[in-house]
Amino acid sequence: MSPAQAPPVAVVTGGARRLGRRLCSMLAARGYDLVVLYRTSEGDARSLVRELETAGRRARALAADIGVERDVAAVFDDVAAAEGRVDLLVNNVGNYNPQPVTRLDPAGWDATLAANLSGAFYCCHHALRLMPDGGNIISIGMAGLEGIRANVHGADYYVSKTGLLVLTRALAKAHAGRRIRVNMVSPGQLENSVDLPPPDAIGKWVPLGRAGRLDDVAQAVGYLLDASYVTGVNIDVSGGYRL
């Protein structure tokens, strides 16, 4: 099969569990072959690969700590040898450490920034050399303007995701000449969020009155894949979270 006839290849970081797993399933249904990156969730990654293969798609799971540049370089060297291309990169990793900033130490700060921001840059850097014209990068961010509020819990997370939006916009402009589109999708309170308010209180923060579902986020990612004239944007998928 020639490269032009081969199915498109998607690389999804943190793809073994939760939102990443749902996105992998959605992308497989849209005809992508999958490379699932995981750090510690080997069992979940292997079971996802089996599910995707049973559904008729080609899938692989590769272990990597994306906060370590040499790990990322090795993964994309592997992809270059096996798949030969990356049509879509989904930066899904989002380490969240909601402790008070007064207790945040340098090790915690470094770990969050490495996974959420530096890791995304490493993946973009190495994926872009394998991405044909017309490819896509989609990063998972955070809803609203949370990154510039005085968030005293999880400040490292908010800083990392705000930086990721700046990176998204810069890459979108830099690679527009190749028709590579770079966008962000930002959930608010999801059903599996670690700090989800109780059902009788969620309306205080979410005007639409419910937590987001993984399918809500997958729907937005699907839209961006189809929206050929959209680049450099952040789509809040949040029910109006903290309007």
Brief overview:
With 243 residues, the protein is α/β, with parallel strands linked by helices.
What does this structure look like?
Helix 1 (18-29) packs across helix 6 (214-226) and helix 4 runs parallel beside helix 5. The chain starts with 8 loop residues before the first strand and ends in a 6-residue tail after the last strand. The mean pLDDT is 93. Helix 1 (18-29) links the parallel strand 1 (9-13) and strand 2 (33-38). It has 243 residues and is of the alpha/beta class. Helices cover 39% and strands 15% of the residues. A seven-stranded parallel beta sheet has the order 3-2-1-4-5-6-7, sandwiched between helices. It has helices at 18-29, 42-54, 69-82, 106-128, 155-174, 214-226, and strands at 9-13, 33-38, 59-63, 88-91, 136-140, 181-187, 234-237. It has one domain: Rossmann fold, CATH 3.40.50.720.
Can you identify the CATH superfamily?
A: NAD(P)-binding Rossmann-like Domain
Question: What is the ordering of alpha helices and beta strands?
Answer: EHEHEHEHEHEHE
Main sheet: strand order: 3-2-1-4-5-6-7
Number of self-contained structural domains: 1
Instruction: Describe the sheet with the most strands.
Output: 7 strands, parallel
> How would you sum up the global shape?
globular
CATH architecture: 3-Layer(aba) Sandwich
Question: CATH fold name, please?
Answer: Rossmann fold
Number of beta-strand segments: 7
End-to-end C-alpha gap: 50 Å
Mean pLDDT: 93
What is the top-level CATH class? Alpha Beta
Low-confidence stretches: none
Provide the helix percentage.
25-40%
